Amino acid sequence: MSKTVGYAVVGLGVGKAHARAAAKAKGCRLVAVCDIVKSKADDMAAELNCEAIYDYDELLKRSDIDVVSICTPSGMHSDMIVKAAEAGKHVLVEKPLDITLEKIDAAIEACRKHNVKLGAIFQNRLNPASQAIKEAITTGALGRTYLANVQVKWWRTQEYYEKDGGWRGTWAMDGGGSLMNQSVHTIDLLQWFMGPVKSVFAFTDIFAHDIETEDAAVAVVRFESGAIGSIIGTTAAYPGLDTTVQIHGENGTIYMTDAKIQRWAIRGPREKEVEAEMIARFAGKGDAASADPSGIATTGHAGQVQDMVNAILEDRDPVIVGSEARHAVEIILAIYESARTGKEVFLKK
Ligand SMILES: NC(=O)c1ccc[n+]([C@@H]2O[C@H](COP(=O)([O-])OP(=O)(O)OC[C@H]3O[C@@H](n4cnc5c(N)ncnc54)[C@H](O)[C@@H]3O)[C@@H](O)[C@H]2O)c1
């Protein structure tokens, strides 16, 4: 491996953020961008001074490409990962890793077999506020955590579901609705903070859109640790509210909206001062995607693209590996099963 990683991006919706990040990343050369829509590839290639490729199989034949960011519709991810692994390319894949556990496992296995790295995007884990919460839990500062809830009350128009070929809100390509597409980030944070989920019970429905999949879901959760929690995820909450994470433990409460700390009330001698410091330190707005899909913050993407390049250069795992990205999808699929069957669904150990 040379000292410069050859980068390519396939799928140029959110993939534009990957391409722009790769063009700026240290130790990296953006070789090509790829989209079946020729104009998308041409425009991006012109902006970033790289090659435009219109056929993914052609991209995989290139020996100067070491890693591919896969940013196509969700139901295509695993097949494209398997092909990349077979061609000896490392992969950074957009969320969700894919939309079934069988496909996710096939992708993870192909990368293992062909000895390539599989990194997965969950950019909200890289937010400084998320990192601080994770640390407060792992160091025991919050004490035993026993209650947590997340709310992703967003708004999406009908037009949002109909554009770009209409893949969003379909079972075949989106794999679900407001949970699998939008809330998956926050469900990942919930399980990252609270540990593995044991079981779920849920209701889902479609209220404000003409789509196949849910646009509203409510689930109650039991964690392996014994803690309990809840998830509300919707794209039917006009005009869209801030994403909320609230965690309660023996020593107090942490409350975050988007990437902003609202409360950091952990019992101790300097409780009020520490809370004021944390609120001031983590006042960032983070993700503003509650009403506008283009409002997704891309600093986390840039961080994950740079991390992927570094992982290749340093021959280590990327910050979020495939098996980590599997958890949120497993939880969401259990929620769908519960909503379908009317029963509490237990996740496999
Ligand atoms: N991390 C985030 O915040 C974030 C934000 C948006 C989307 N996403 C994820 O990224 C993925 C793409 O979503 P999007 O909103 O960018 O969708 P999009 O429809 O805007 O873009 C997908 C692109 O893939 C292209 N494409 C489809 N099939 C292809 C093929 N065979 N070869 C090459 N190009 C092909 C399409 O032409 C399109 O330009 C989804 O999995 C989605 O969940 C993640």
Q: Could you describe the 3D structure shown?
A:
37% of the residues lie in helices and 23% in strands. The chain contains 11 helices and 14 strands. The strands form 2 sheets. An 8-stranded mixed beta sheet has the order 13-12-11-7-10-9-8-14. The protein has a 6-stranded parallel beta sheet with strand order 3-2-1-4-5-6, with helices on both faces. Strand 1 (5-10), helix 1 (15-24) and strand 2 form a beta-alpha-beta unit. Helix 1 (15-24) crosses helix 10 (299-314) and helix 8 crosses helix 11 (322-341). It is globular and about 55 Å long. It starts with a strand and ends with a strand. The structure holds nicotinamide-adenine-dinucleotide (NAD). Nicotinamide-adenine-dinucleotide binds at residues 10-14, 34-37, 40, 56, 71-74, 94-95, 121, 123, 164, 181, 296. Nicotinamide-adenine-dinucleotide is lined by residues 10-14, 34-37, 40, 56, 71-74, 94-95, 121, 123, 164, 181, 296.
Which tags fit this structure?
Dihydrodipicolinate Reductase, domain 2, six-stranded parallel β-sheet, binds nicotinamide-adenine-dinucleotide, 349 residues, Rossmann fold, 11 helices, alpha/beta, 37% helix, 23% strand, 2 domains
Quickly describe the structure.
The protein has helices at 15-24, 38-48, 56-60, 77-86, 101-113, 128-138, 158-162, 178-194, 271-281, 299-314, 322-341, and strands at 5-10, 28-34, 51-53, 67-70, 90-93, 118-120, 145-153, 197-205, 216-223, 228-234, 244-249, 252-257, 260-266, 345-346. By secondary structure, the protein is α/β, with parallel strands linked by helices.
